[in-house]
Amino acid sequence: MINVVLCGGSGTRLWPLSRSLYPKQFIKLFDNRSLFQLTVLRNKSFAEKFIFVTNEVHYFLALDQIEEVGLDVNKAEFILEPVGKNTAPAVAFASFLVNEDQVLLVSSADHYIKESDNYYESLKKGEEFARLGYLVTFGVRPTNPNTGYGYIKAKGFDVEEFKEKPDLQTAQKYIENGNYFWNSGIFCFKAKSYLEELNLYENEVFESSHKALKNAKNCSPIRIKPKDMSEIKPNSIDYAVAEKSKRLKIVPFDTEWDDLGSFDSLYEVLEKDENGNTKNNSILINSKNNLIIEENNRMIGAIDVEDLMIVDTADALLVLKKGSGQKVKDIVSVLKSKNSELTNAHLTVYRPWGNYTLLEENRFYKIKKIVVKPQKRLSLQKHLHRSEHWIVVSGTALVTVADKEFILRPNESTYIKIGELHRLGNPGKIDLIIIEAQVGEYVAEDDIIRIEDDFKRC
């Protein structure tokens, strides 16, 4: 079995933790593990290989995280999308890539699932049906009339009805009926079974996805071309196939599951103290049933409060009542209307060579802490509007400026003029840490002209 992991979610309801360059599936909320990493760890004992379908901007982040949990990169294949077009084409890419009789387990990278024997027993049963040509969905017994999930009416393993995201009144009737399950968004089938159904019910998505994969660069990772991606109609596997297919089977998941679509649901799965507060370094007096997340390790004090959710990051603070988690997307919408960078990135931004943290910014200058991993280097580049000053704090820097190459050690520095060709590398065995001061009339991140890049970025 091959595990196809869909990593394209943006997680706007978990802002300010989740940003477009660092979405919820990659945030390390569970003992310094992300949901993405937990998905890999949960499935790698039975998956012979993984296919990750993700946005191209998250490729190196995903690559770092699978290496952290010990997944052999030779067992991983990446399909990179320039933009997301929902799950139906994403699964089609993976299905076209493998042998038609290959069994695929399709899972989302941003779901919380408690690992248990029941989980693996359900997967084995699903694989049995998949080998017989069925498309298998895994159902979760509903605990409330949630309108954000698809509902499946079951009779044994047979699916009698599939209804994607009903209204509240309908969802309540489903709960009362007792034979309905939430659609977990996890599927199991042979590649050819899915493609036959997609071709039957959504031929346009089938054809355009097939064309896009054929035209993708014949290398690893596989990169879908922007033009081909633009021709694909967005659609989910639920609407495109699951709601219409006559070959659908359902296997119940008798394990804890949540898609973590809000801070309310995150509160439910995080460890809590005797007062119902999520465990953290805050000081809470006469307070109970609160979600407190201090990503910036800043101490939070609270007195006489209950049922609050406080999320503190280095550049944004969110305070809301429990039960209002779905409204966080409204704040994100306002920020986007103002073209705020707060929806895009944290103060620390991850790059394939390491990361940088914005320390201070003004109209005419920017100060960063830059961390370069061992044996990595930035692109050979130049800037049209800014000069740069580099001061080494720790490690060894290999610096290229124009036609010169030299070494800098801690407490040594150099200066790069506007328009001068330059490169920063780390030839050592420990992280290189430098402080960079940019000065100029324009210090935005897009003032980079890359001449040569180890990571094949434009």
Annotation keywords:
Spore Coat Polysaccharide Biosynthesis Protein SpsA, Chain A, ten-stranded mixed β-sheet, transferase, nucleotide-binding, alpha+beta, six-stranded antiparallel β-sheet, ManC/GMP-like_b-helix, 458 residues, Jelly Rolls
Number of E-state strands: 30
Name the poorly predicted regions: none
> What fraction, in percent, of the residue positions are helical?
10-25%
C-alpha-based Rg, rounded: 24 Å
Strand content: 25-35%
Domain Mannose-6-phosphate isomerase type II C-terminal: 339-453
InterPro entries: GMPP_N, Man1P_GuaTrfase/Man6P_Isoase, Man6P_isomerase-2_C, ManC/GMP-like_b-helix, Mannose-6P_isomerase_type2, NTP_transferase_dom, Nucleotide-diphossugar_trans, RmlC-like_jellyroll
Domain Nucleotidyl transferase: 3-274
Catalytic activity: alpha-D-mannose 1-phosphate + GTP + H(+) = GDP-alpha-D-mannose + diphosphate
